[in-house]
Amino acid sequence: MAITTAVASPTATQERAPVLAIRDLNASFYTRRGEVHAVRDVSFSLRQGETLALVGESGSGKTATAMSILRMLPGKARVTSGEILFQGRDLVRMSEGQMTRIRGRHIGLIPQDPAASLNPLMTVGQHVTELLGVHLGMKGRVAHDRTIELLDAVGIPEPRRRFDAYPHQMSGGMRQRVMIALAIACHPALLLADEPTTALDPTIQSQILELIATLSREMNTATILITHNLGIVAGVCDRVAVMYGGRIVEVAPRDRLFAEPRHPYALGLLQCVPRVDRLTAGTFQSIPGQPPDLAGPIPGCSFAPRCSFASERCHRESPPLTPPVGDHQAACWHQDQLRAARA
What we know:
By secondary structure, this protein is an alpha/beta fold. The chain has helices spanning about 10-15, 60-70, 95-100, 115, 125-135, 140-155, 160, 170-185, 200-220, 255-260, 265-270, 310-315, 335-340, and strands at about 20-30, 35-45, 50-55, 80-85, 90, 105-110, 190-195, 220-225, 240-245, 245-255, 330.
């Protein structure tokens, strides 16, 4: 499964510098109802070889954050403020031509629906060789052999025969492996995996997640895994950022978040994961209420209407991520009460 592309040893300075640093990012969708604030003051960083999970229910801002990084927000949506520093350069201020050279070459994307991303009139081999030609200048036999190597690396059986297959001739799991091959073809510094297992059965989900994790380790690539399910990140990610209402409400090392969630929403997501040792009378946990309407202002904490810990202050003042510096931060006025309730 190993990719044969050589990896240069980073200098001490490169090891310390984050591959990606997002600062106070805001992005909006412009609809008939007005401006929808999909991403609100999001900040985080990601280092080489690290995997970060962006977790939250639908509409929390996960995919909008990833598409902001790629500058691929749909329609009239756009980044309204903030910085997206990729290898020290602000993607927000780049021209479309500059971004075209970065997408696919330096930042790879694994989408959640490979069937909608692959051209049905092109073979698998044509998809990969075209990418290699555009970004790396590979042609002819060199591009062909590299494509076979990539298809083999992502676990596609009989890669030489599959080279000439069309997307409709492959299963959903095999199509997703083709998307992974496309994402890693140019050895990107950053890999974005946007709910890459949504349409797959549980067995294939596990295989795809393990494949992404293995390839990320082998290439020492910084990876963002977007998912709505905390249960699938347990063995894959180094850190977890929980998003709600367009904001990051908690960020922590994976094991710390699972052992000691400091935001009620993160706790609620963990309680929603079915566990054999906690099932009683066949019931499942859920989070009551509905996500906030991002089309208007949100006074106070956006989770307050659904939170059993909420006080009058929560409905009036929006909590910042605290502590200001540290590897485990949460945006909640009642972290002490939450900790006491879990004790």
